[in-house]
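Internal tracking record. Fields below are filled automatically when a chain is submitted to the structure queue. Please do not edit lines marked as system-generated. If the sequence contains nonstandard residues, flag them in the REMARKS field before resubmitting.
Queue: standard
Priority: normal
Entity type: single polypeptide chain
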Amino acid sequence: MLLYPERGLVLNATAAEVVKLCTGEHTVAAIVERLAALYAPQPADAIEREVLAFLHAMVERGLIRSEP
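SYSTEM-GENERATED OUTPUT FOLLOWS
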């Protein structure tokens, strides 16, 4: 569960794994690579699309920051 002021968001296992990797030490490519290894034989391009969509939604909610 991801907690934020007066709310909570229940994450599935994959989303929780992505959030755990959002430390500022991993690039999006590194996150995708790790998930591709975990969820093989899922195509890496499909995983990348889902990760980007999830991260975009988290940025829009103000739950993570996007750094240039």
